[in-house]
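pasting Polyisoprenoid diphosphate/phosphate phosphohydrolase PLPP6 for the record, 203 residues
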Amino acid sequence: DCMKLNPSFLGIALSSLLAIDLWASKRLGVCAGEGSAWGSARPLMKVIEVSGHGIPWLLGTFYGLCQSDSSAAREVLLNLLFALLLDLVLVAVVKGLVKRRRPTHNKMDMFVTISVDKYSFPSGHATRAALVCRFVLHHLVLAVPLRVLVVLWALIVGVSRVMLGRHNVTDVLFGLLLGYALYSVVEYCWLSPLSAPALFALW
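structre below
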């Protein structure tokens, strides 16, 4: 009898969690519009939004790769480019499968969107922020204050997604976890002159 009750209990629990997620997301969407509680901070939040967008990261990484004259730097940048492309593909696939709509209070004025960007789960900005954060901390020699700033940037990008009304809380939390895990995949598939000589010959 207890086993028969489990499916309905699970359904109730998931519905309750979803309701809490939607309620918290709406309450935290304080920059969702100019007339919102923190509407005056919206321009700053949109700058943070651009800082976590895929296009600036892809263009910046590709430019650095073309300009670099160090083999070590090229190896790191090539793997960062691989990580960013992998992130874009994975997020697009998950969004297309889940098809969760963005919060109703979201204002669709995002910086450069594509078809799957009408969906909300997971947050691509959050996955990218977590991925780049781990990548930078592992492959760049930075002073402690700069390392702290990198971590804060990743967290602020995630929080800004909810504050702008772009995503629900669970979209961002899952995105951060996915980006964190995705870095491990990049490390496992690390591209080097030994593992991918033809690719490095192009540069």
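The helical segments are 2-28, 42-51, 54-67, 71-98, 124-139, 144-163, 169-188, 197-201.
The chain has a mean pLDDT of 88.
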